[in-house]
Write a structure and sequence with these properties.
It is a single chain. The protein contains 18 helices and 18 strands. It is α/β, with parallel strands linked by helices. The strands form 4 sheets. It has a 7-stranded mixed beta sheet with strand order 3-1-6-7-8-9-10, sandwiched between helices. β17, α14 and β18 form a beta-alpha-beta unit. The protein is globular.
């Protein structure tokens, strides 16, 4: 069946030493498809990652892309397609989006190409100017309404050129007939409408759900039939490195969230739910209502918060309600162990307290929840002393029972306060260099005091310090991690990553499959780390 509107989730780009970042259903474009379907527009999704998660192709600068090839994506288009919307979540993925646009243009230059996501939302003027031959429109921020109105004008009103669109569509940018960037409104409107009456459930029926379930590579961990969900959008806090900072927080009702859970159970027999909210816990009463509604309906599910929850909004009552309703894993985000960094650089917020977060981790552990903590190293203005404080604080978390940590390296995101003082360090604005955020074999520093090699060592030291402390204070749980990986079971994000790397290594050594892509340096980096830990314990 032909469709006039096609939404594309492009291939996933990575380096061969990338820590497995997981693949999740692209809910953003699934929501766009839902609102178009609700308004009787003909739409389909080409999910390049979900359709071919096992296909790897070489890309630029020793990087690789996972999913359908560009040629295979274009081959799925036909002469009926009038509008193509492409999701661009991360800045390091923009070169992939550019190449996809080039090939779509070569296939049919009359197709209207629309970009959306955090990266084009922040750099819409530059993208429309520099890539004017590739991109026709950029949707900024929340995309449902502006993309719907744009498609209605392009299709139903038979408008063929940007200059005829007019300025009545908010959050839409394009070049007018004089080559000047035009915005539909002067003010960026975010999250203006999100409730059960205006936004339908995401169109998961247009996604290859079985492929995601079979891949078992979620953002968190997974052991069965799972999907991601969003119960709220936005975050009013002002973390200076985050693209979601100071956005209006809007939420769905507990009833609507439970309805979607039931829908997923009935249609796909899904029993694991991963909430990807930017800040799920802002309204404590609402979250407890969600837990109560799950229990009232006797929904036999498990759920987790892989994108993180804010510790300042957490207490024992909330954690207990979460646990009783099926929550198994929570992610906390201290970001740093240095109060100076949190206050002066990150601007985490006056209500944020490291002691309280540590107590939340201890309480969650006591209740039987698995707990992760996220940190960022290499922030502009961060000193060596600050990083040592972060490592020390991570050890405190290990002592009270936090199961795992992630020490991500800072990368500047366009549109954030830390972008301006950092962007000059990206050589020729090569977005692929930002892939170092998850590359265990390489670091790129945006810090004036600590260089790339030293930052790489600091990250390894931080991991070793946390793991050693966890072994000493919680040896049974640490041994359980090793056994889970060997048995192919996941209870934490770390176990998912280790299981994936272990599987890749076995595949390499057994038959050489994917050897070009997944060389063994990442595996050996982990092995070297664990050997050092055991030497420290048993010497």
């Amino acid at each position: 069946m032909s469709h006039q509107v096609i939404l594309i989730n492009p291939p996933q780009v990575f380096t061969k030493n990338q820590v497995a970042s997981g693949i999740t259903p692209p809910l953003g474009i699934a929501y766009l498809a839902a609102i178009l379907e609700q308004n009787d527009l003909s739409v389909d999704i080409i999910d390049a990652v979900g359709l071919e998660p096992g296909t790897i192709n070489a890309f630029e600068k020793e990087t690789f892309v996972r999913g359908l090839s560009f040629e295979d994506i274009v081959a799925r288009l036909d002469d009926e397609v009038k509008v193509v919307g492409i999701s661009n979540l991360f800045s390091f993925a923009y070169p992939v989006v550019q190449e996809l646009c080039r090939q779509i243009r070569a296939f049919n230059s009359d197709i209207q190409i629309v970009l959306g996501g955090p990266h084009p939302s922040a750099l819409y003027a530059e993208i429309l100017d520099e890539d004017r031959d590739l991109v026709d429109f950029v949707v900024l921020g929340e995309g449902e309404n502006p993309f719907l109105y744009l498609c209605q004008k392009l299709l139903q009103d038979n408008v063929l050129f940007q200059s005829n669109i007019g300025g009545d569509i908010s959050n839409l940018a394009y070049l007018d007939e004089n080559g000047t960037c035009v915005m539909g409104t002067e003010k960026l409107v975010r999250n203006t409408k999100l409730n059960s009456d205006t936004i339908p459930f995401p169109s998961r029926h247009l996604l290859p759900m079985e492929e995601y379930i079979k891949a078992q590579e979620s953002h968190g961990y997974s052991n069965g039939r799972w999907t991601s969900m969003i119960s709220s959008r936005g975050c009013p806090y002002g973390c200076t490195f985050c693209a979601s900072r100071k956005t209006r927080w809007v939420s769905r009702s507990a009833t609507d969230v439970a309805d979607e859970i039931e829908h997923c159970i009935e249609k796909w027999n899904i029993r694991e739910f991963h909430f990807e909210d930017d800040n799920m816990t802002i309204n404590v009463k609402r979250l407890i209502q969600i837990c109560d509604e799950i229990k009232r309906r006797k929904l036999d599910i498990s759920w987790q918060t892989p994108n993180g929850i804010r510790a300042s909004r957490i207490d024992e009552e909330m954690l207990r309600a979460m646990k009783e309703s099926g929550c198994e894993h929570v992610t906390l985000a201290p970001e740093s162990g240095s109060p100076r960094v949190l206050t002066d650089i990150i601007q985490k917020g006056k209500d944020f307290d490291l002691d309280h977060l540590r107590d939340c981790g201890a309480t969650a552990h006591k209740l039987g929840l698995k707990v992760a903590a996220y940190f960022v190293l290499g922030l502009p203005g961060e000193t060596r002393e600050d990083m040592e404080m972060t490592i020390k604080y991570a050890r405190e978390l290990a002592r009270v029972g936090v199961d795992e940590v992630n020490f991500g390296l800072f990368i500047p995101l366009p549109g954030t306060p830390l972008w301006e003082p950092s962007k000059h360090k990206i050589k020729d604005l090569d977005w692929l260099d930002l892939l170092t955020v998850g590359d265990l074999a390489k670091a790129v520093s945006f810090n004036d005091e600590v260089g790339s090699k030293e930052l790489d060592w600091v990250r390894k030291k931080a991991y070793m310090s946390f793991l050693l402390t966890r072994i000493i204070y919680h040896p049974v749980q640490f041994a359980g991690t090793i056994f889970n990986v060997l048995r192919g079971i996941e209870k934490t994000k770390t176990e998912r990553v280790l299981k994936t790397i272990y599987a890749r290594y076995k595949k390499d050594t057994k038959n050489g499959i994917n050897k070009l892509v997944f060389d063994n340096r990442t595996f050996y980096a982990y092995r070297h780390m664990y050997r050092k830990i055991f030497r420290l314990i048993f010497r």
